[in-house]
């Protein structure tokens, strides 16, 4: 059940048969994510650490 709920909010990680049954075609009627939040968060935290060091 938890995986199914995660796939609702992240269809790009779903298996293709699940997307087909739901009528979802990535890039056609549902976009891929624009930002990888995990990577972006790490990059921002690194920038803030560097900013603190420079003071």
Largest sheet: none
Radius of gyration: 17 Å
Query: Which runs of at least 5 residues are low in confidence (pLDDT < 50)?
Result: none
Distance N terminus to C terminus?
Answer: 48 Å
**Residue fraction in strands:** under 5%
Count of distinct strands: 0
Question: SSE string, helix = H, strand = E?
Answer: HHH
Report the helical percentage.
Answer: 55-70%
| Shape call | elongated
Number of helices: 3
Q: Report the mean per-residue pLDDT as an integer.
A: 85
Briefly note the structural class of the backbone. mainly alpha
Can you walk through the features of this model?
With about 55 residues, the protein is mostly helical. The protein has 3 helices and no strands. It has helices at about 1-10, 15-20, 35-55. The longest helix has 18 residues, at about 35-55. The protein is elongated. About 0% of the residues are buried.
């Amino acid at each position: 059940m938890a995986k199914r709920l995660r796939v609702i909010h992240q269809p790009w990680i779903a298996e293709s048969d699940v997307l087909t049954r739901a009528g979802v075609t990535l890039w056609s009627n549902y976009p891929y994510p624009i930002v990888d939040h995990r990577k972006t968060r790490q990059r921002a935290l690194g920038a803030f650490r560097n900013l603190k060091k420079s003071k």
